[in-house]
Structure formats: structure tokens, C-alpha cells
Amino acid sequence: MLPAAFAQDLPPDAQALQDAGRLSVAGPGAPPLAVDDPRWDAAAAARLSLHPQIAITPGSEPVPARTAELRAISDGQSIALRVQWQDPSPDHSDGGRTDHFADAVSVQFAHPEGDGVLPYIGMGEPGRPVTVWYWQAGRGAEHLMAHGFGSLEKTAGTAPEHDARHDGEGWTVVLRGPLADAPLPVALAVWDGAANQRNGDKRLSAWHLVHVPGAPVERERYGALLAQQKVDGDPDQGRRLFTAHGCIGCHRVPGGADVAVGPDLRLAGAHHWPGYLRRMIEDPSAFIVPGKGYGIPGADGTLQSLMPRQALDAEEIEHIIAWLAGLGEKGGVGK
Amino acid sequence: MRQLAMVIDLNKCIGCQTCTLACKSQWTDRGGREFMYWNHVETEPGKGYPRDWKNAGGGWEGEQLRPGRLPRLHEDYGYPAEFNYEEALFEPTEKPLRPIQEMQWGPNWEEDQGAGEFPNSYFFYLPRLCNHCTKPACLAACPRQAIYKREEDGIVLIDQDRCRGYRYCVAACPYKKIYFNPTTGMSEKCIFCYPRVERGTPPACAYQCVGRARHVSYLDDREGPVHRLVNEWKVALPLLPQHGTQPNVYYVPPLSPPAFDADGRPGDKPRLPENYLEELFGPGVHDALATLEAEIERKGRGEASEVLDILIAYRHGDMFRLDRGGQQGGQGDA
Questions:
Q1: A143 has which bridge partners?
Q2: Between chains, do B182 and A96 touch, taking CB under 8 Å as contact?
Q3: Which residue from A minimizes the CA distance to B183?
Q4: Which residues of chain A are within 8 Å of residue B73 when distances are taken between CB atoms?
Q5: Probe site for chain B from A94, A97, A99, A201 (most B CB atoms < 10 A)
Q6: How many CB atoms neighbour CB A76 within 10 A?
Q7: How far B34 CA lies from chain A's nearest CA (Å)?
Q8: Do the domains at A4-229 and A235-324 have one common CATH topology?
Q9: DSSP state of A270
Q10: Which domains does chain B have, with CATH numbers?
């Protein structure tokens, strides 16, 4: 149920184009910390698809998505987020090994101020920072901040409180801290220690919005978020245009060649909102993933994307976005 | 960029581990570092420390990093044993003081073992520390720019505020001289005693060496022992240069007596096989050994030899030149 305060802003058929495009609603009340607090049962669960990060090295290969279940409870001041995911082998950083990695989960928060634009899903962008609650088995939780790959750092922010349990099949982790924004854009990532996962080698979701009942929502901001999840094109035409305009020469896509000049787009729809794809096609240099050779210094010294602006009209861009947004399997919101 | 560098004379190293202890008591005796030896002395030939590090990958293949593996705490490094102090010292028992669990491996595990058949068996000591490479693979492997090389002295350091414990650096170092601290969750390594260096005092391992085997000076300091041994006399060589990292710890290769022939007489081949030394120190090792032999002979005839005088190190203070902008270092004398 969407709160009446802005339900009118949604078209009646406001279908999620991808798992993260749809609001989930936080349960009301004092946020619990214990993983087995009975109040979690009453909170709505969003099932987010976690796909391996394959776009940028170091990543992994595309394998079937796993699902993480996200529940939220907030009183408008602070919020508790409970994440559950499958991982049969619990891997702790126990101080006894040097060749072993620990299971971990992160909740990444965006702060789309001003223009309401959500940052790049992979650790944010310069000028569009993200904050991260990071929990690692055996080491606890940290409060971190980032504005692009390689920029993650500890901040003065208080580490979230945490509780965790492994039940033989997977992890349940609760992180609790102050509520920053509403609706709250969050993205999940999990690392499997048994597979030596760390850094960008992880599984992650796209941006997902958590609405907090009673927390004020700016109308413009909500409108901007809505615009970023909207897509209005024909995927079949998009696929043809992607080939015809040579995009396929640099980006790996299903059925395409093994190229890596630009990011791998085989899971583009599973990780990106249409708005991000639109922004990158319209102005490839608006944000360049740092440190991966995607940028070359221009005449004025600023980095320019290797990707040229394409001779595409707005309609054609929408077709391409419609196709890319369909790449990668989606999750959903349910009880 | 200036580069502070070290020359270790393997003909003078007696394997006493004073350097190892100087380092350990200074930097690695607590806090998850107990198993770490930023400096250690191993016996060559051998598997070394961590075990089999020469086959653990890392380094460069052209401009690409070569994959490497992570050493294991107990199996490859070896963990300091707990002893039965309580039982042996305070209980009425005849049991001697022993490690509680039998150790399987540790630093210096194969001390003096070496290789070859009597009477031609051989070994030598190889002290090892971070090479503070000119082209560090560890630095290139870190996705967080947590590793940096200082402009003023080329010392390679890991920023403990930026390290996230990913350990790409550990895999990338072909010398396996970066250690993951499982207690702090971050990686650590030899810091070339930079707090001492900044005060003009040589690194502890070099300063405490009882054999006067270690020289420290800037590579571009033409008066310094390192420049003269490495660049002028070419008797000091980097370890395993084929890894492409351009190490800045140089070794004066070990001379050896002649091997015995089938009749038990000294033959014309050295006891340490030259192709083996070439694998370790590169093709320059033959000329380096020839120079050393010629200079020893010269000195034996009572003639002057600049290079042997440097290596003999009559004055302890002459082995170190760390002056940074006029500041004099190496206070030690005689």
C-alpha cells in the first residue's frame, strides 16, 4: 500500500520496470535490533535480485541471480533494515587465517538532493556520494562513505548497531541507525567469503526505494525518481539500434562478442534504472567510472568518456533503454 | 623520485637473525603480527618463508600483473607455538617444556639444510625484506590506492586508513613480503623503518647487523656505498629480477669454495652452481662473482681495492648515508 500522501503521483498502472523501481514500505514503530524480533513478521518484505557485479573488473561471471529479502521498520527517526540471503557456509573473519575471506553485506544509501538523480549503483559518483552500512561476519558493522570506485572511506558517522544469525542456510542481519532520507533509496550487496569475494567481486541489487510512513516526501524529488524509472520504448527496436549504432563493438551484451572496451551490459537492467542508462547515453562524460580506462583527458584536461555521443533522437534512445532495461532477471515486492 | 636502497653482502651474513629480532621487537611483536617477519633470514636453497614463496606467483608479465596466491597462516607462515609452561614449570611432572601442538612449519624451518650431496653440499643465508620496488606490483594491484611510494625516498607504504584487507597486494608481491593481519583485517609490510630514516638513523635490521653486511644509502648518492656497489662496481644485484618489479634491496652474491671432483680433489667448479645463482640474481651474477674474486686476489697481494674496502666496512658509520638535506646520519662509529 502506497501512502496517500503521494499515491496521486503514481500512474494507476505503476508497474515496476525492475525490482528496484518499486517502493516498499517500512513497518511503523520503534525499529527492533534482534534478528528474531516478532515485529519483523509483520513488515513487508521486498525480494531483491542480487546479480554478480560483472560490469567492471574485478567482477565475476553472470550466474543465476540470488534473492535477498529486505524488511524495514522505522519510526521516522531511525530505521532498522533486516536482510536475509542464502549462503550455506558461514565464513567469519576469525583472526586465525590469512587466506580466507568473510561473508559480508552492505546497504548503500543514496542522497539524491537537488536534481533528485540517483548516483551510479557502484559506490556513487563524484558529487553524488553514497553512504554505506557495511557488516562483515566476525568483524561487525561500519559506517562508510564513497563517491566512486576506490573512494570508500570510514567516516565520522556512527557505525550502525547490528545483530546477525546464521541458521545453516543463510544469513539474517539487522542494521539499525538514523534515518537519512525518505523515500530511502537503498541498494544491497552481499559477498560470499567461501568464493573469496571482496571488493567489486560481489552480488548487488539495483536501487530500491523504501518508503517510511509519516516521513515527509518532497514532491519534486519523488517526481524525479519516478522519471528515472520510467521507460517508454520498444525493446526490439532498441536491440537493432544497439547493433546499428556500433554500441555492440564496445559493450558486451547477450549474444554479442566478448568485448570489454566499455562496461559489460549483460545485466544492465538488473543493476541500473532506466534513468541512469538515459543519462549515460545522452551525455557519456557526465560520469565516467574511474580507474578503468574509460576516460581520456580532453583538451581542457578534464576526462572525456571513450564513448561518443551517438546520433540518436530521443525516441531511439528510449528504444535502446527499453532493451537494456530488460537485460537481467528482476525481483519483486511482496509480503 | 629519490630511492633509498640497501645492499646486503651475502658473504658476510652469518644467519644469526639479529636483523630479524631487531625488526620484530621494534614492529611486529603484538597485535596479530606475531607470525609476521617483515625481515627474516632464510636458508637457500629451500622453500623459504612463507613456504614455497618462489612458486606463489605475483610480479609482472610485461605490463600485466601475474596472478598469485595467498599464503596460509599455519601451513605456509607457521604460527608461534604455545608451550606447556603451566604443566612443565608448576606441576609435579617430569614432562619437559615443549610446544603443545607439534609444529609443522615456521620461519627458518629448514635452517642450514641446503642442497647437494656430501662433500659438495651447499647452502647460504638469504636475508629478505620488502624490496621497496621501483615498479611495485602490490601498489598496482590495490584498487583503493592504499599503497603509495614516497617521493622523497621511494619507501613503499600501506595506508592503514585506506586498506580494506582485500589482499590483492599479497597475491601480487612476487616476494610475498606483504602480510595480512587477521586481527586488524588489514595488510602490513616492512616500512623501511621510515620513522628512523626521517631522523637520519638507518633501518633497525641494517643498523643492528653484527656482520656489517648491510649498507643503506640513496641510489643517486654517488658517495654512498649503495651507488658504488650497485652502479659502479656492479657487484650487488636484485633478487629474482625477472619478476619485473625492480627491487631496491640488492645482494652481493655468495662466493663458494671449489666443488670436489670424483677423486676428492678441489675441482674448477664452484660449490654453489652458477646456473642456480643466475636464477636467483640474474645474468649479472657471473661478472659480479668474477669482480669479487679478482678484487679479493688483489687485496690478498696487498694492493688497494676500493670495492673490498667498502664491503669490509672498516667504519660502521660509512655503511649508511641517510642525509636528507644536509642532515647527517649513521651516528655509529667503529
A1: A133
A2: yes
A3: A95
A4: 96-99
A5: A99
A6: 14
A7: 12
A8: no
A9: H
A10: 4-80+105-321 (3.30.70.20)
Cβ–Cβ below 8 Å for A94 and B72 = no
Question: Which pLDDT tens digit goes with each residue over A162-203?
Answer: 999 999 999 999 999 998 877 788 999 999 999 999 999 999
- Domain ranges in chain A are 4-229, 235-324
Closest partner CB to B73 (pick from A97, A152, A199): A97
Instruction: Tell me the whole-structure pTM to 2 decimals.
Output: 0.91
Topology of the domain covering A235-324: Cytochrome Bc1 Complex; Chain D, domain 2 (1.10.760)
Residue B215 near residue B227, CB atoms below 8 Å: no
pLDDT at B133: 98
Distance CA A328, CA A270 (A): 5
What's the gap in Å between the CA of B187 and the closest CA on chain A?
10
Note the ipTM here: 0.88
Min Cα separation A155/chain B (Å): 11
What span, in angstroms and rounded, lies between the C-alpha atoms of A100 and A103? 10
Residue A57, chain B, CB below 8 Å: the answer is: no
CA-wise closest residue to A197 among A274, A89, A291: A89
Query: Which CATH code fits A4-229?
Result: 2.60.40.1190
SS3 (DSSP) at A123:
coil
Distances (CA, A) of B141 to A58, B144, B182, B249: 11, 9, 20, 21
